[in-house]
């Protein structure tokens, strides 16, 4: 496939490098000029537990007018609207757009600008990646990717996209109910994103903390309640057990919201904890735990410049 990855940070670079190594025709777009220059000159180096690969990838700081088969939006949720608008030169009538972000709500933003009939949504779980230096990325975990349609996209197209990712060594599968998977991941994310960002604690420290632990569990339970009230077919029967199992797999991890705060960057909190009260309001309900956590995080971020 001809694939464009818009947003070439750690995760986007891993996606691009693995897809290119499988023989797909890949170009990347990111405003980080030094990273793009290094990739253009030396190729993209991706290292991980299984292998190290350097692959040639076309790199751009702005999207070229080159329509592709698949556009992957791998930016943070806060940047997804800008990325969607910039991606238009990459689109042909048959182009599929795949958006992969933390939290819930990004797909609605993309669909508003690019149309829901071409849009697929991805859920990534168990990934850990970092940029070592411009042009070089490392991943230390890479579990599963699940893709589903946001609107009227033909399921056969989603299957075709998943097959392309499987060729690149990803555990990728097309599913019919991506919303349930998004919510199940969101339940885990709300338990740790805001609590860790506000306290500086790791996932494991929050999980068993005398004071913050109950807040974390309440945020997860509230998200679970909203999902069920919205009619989402989540398979989870015990949200507290879910988030404890999730946290036990990565006790030393720092959620992206905490990493953003350590770098004094605005986080994706409006698409994580902030998604719960927003979705609750659609059915006339409130979500006070997540609303409060979101407000506290946003207040802290008001003094920072978005970078």
Automatic annotation (TrEMBL):
GO terms for molecular function: 2-dehydropantoate 2-reductase activity. It catalyses: (R)-pantoate + NADP(+) = 2-dehydropantoate + NADPH + H(+). Its EC number is 1.1.1.169. Keywords: NADP, Oxidoreductase, Pantothenate biosynthesis. Residues 3-148 form the Ketopantoate reductase N-terminal domain. Pathway: Cofactor biosynthesis; (R)-pantothenate biosynthesis; (R)-pantoate from 3-methyl-2-oxobutanoate: step 2/2. One of its GO terms (biological process) is pantothenate biosynthetic process. It holds the Pfam family ApbA_C. It comes from the Bacteria. It is an enzyme of class 1 (oxidoreductase). Transmembrane segments: none annotated. GO terms for cellular component: cytoplasm. Residues 177-301 form the Ketopantoate reductase C-terminal domain. NCBIfam families: apbA_panE. Belongs to the ketopantoate reductase family. This is 2-dehydropantoate 2-reductase.
